[in-house]
Every structure is written in structure tokens, then in C-alpha cells.
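Handout, page 2. Input:
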Amino acid sequence: MARRSVLTDNRDLIAGAVGGGFAPLATFLFGLPIYATLPGALLVFFGTRLILTPKAFFEDLPKGEFSEARIDLARDVLIAADHALASLAATVEHLRNEAVQDKLLHLHRIASEVVSEVERDPERLMQVQRLLTYYLPAASRLSTGYLALERKRNPNPERVAETEAMIARLDKIFDDYADRLVMPEVEGLDVELRLLDDAIRDEEFKA
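Output:
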């Protein structure tokens, strides 16, 4: 399964519009009869559709760099996460509460970045698997529930407040999981700082 986006989901419509616009444009610019521009319009249509065809997860990953089992597991997780992200995005755009909308968009942005990191290095999945398999779908369900509350004429204020508080708590959880992905680099920086400090102290002592 391939990743989705607004462009890829509507690629036939977009390709049709681009291809359909090519024929009259070519006729106007080059003075060609409309029938002579039709083959070019077809090429533009199929070319645009090909460009917008979504790529599968790990399609560009060098072969042999990671085990197939690891890639298969990561692919399954990312496909499910991709669906949760799409559902979250579709719901958030209909929310009226801008503060809640901003928080959920922040969760969406973090999860999208995590997905991209795991796609670059499937070995990192274990650090964030619970985020993608549990907390992200939960955030999507919360957004759906909150939208339902907004649509009620007399929503329960306590339930609204409880849902908003949980969304705020998820914000910290998402941040914490995202930070886990950069911990190896941070730890490497700490080691480098200590080594450099020792080396410079040694140089200063010799001087």
C-alpha cells in the first residue's frame, strides 16, 4: 500500500485538468488545430498521473541494508499510521475550536515527522512503535469524538473539558516520543563534547 495525500488521492482529477488544459493552450500558442494537440494532451495526462502516483513505503530504501522482517513490520505500522494521519487531518479541518485544532495539528505534524524518520531508518521503529500504533490512532479517535461534541446543541461541558485536557496531555506524549528519535545523536554529542574538552585541556596543559 502507498502513502496518501490530497494530491495523490485526486491525481485523476488533477491530471485530467492539466491534460485538458494543454490542448486549448497549445492551439492558442502554436496555432495548431485542436485534433493535432490531442496526442500531446494524452501524454500530459498520463505523465501528470504518473508523477502523482503515490510511492510505497521503503520503495527507495537500499536493498540489503535492513532485514526484510524489519522492513515488513515497519511497513505495516507505517501504513496503519498513514491511515490514522489521514483521518486525523480530515477531522481537524472541520473543528471550530481553534486552540484544539492547533493542538491536534501539532500532533499530526509530530507524527508525520516520526513516520518520515522511521521510513529513513526502520531500525528506529522500536523507539516509537507505541506512538504510531496506540497514541496516534487514539488521537484520531479523540478528534472524531470532539468534533461530534462540537456538533451537539448542548454538549456536556465536563466531557468537553475532559477531552480537551486529554488532547493537551497527548501533546507532551508525542513530544517525548519524537525526542527519543534524536537521543542517539544527543548522546553522541555529549561524548564528543567530553572528548574535545579532554583534548583541549591536554593542549592547554602542554602549553
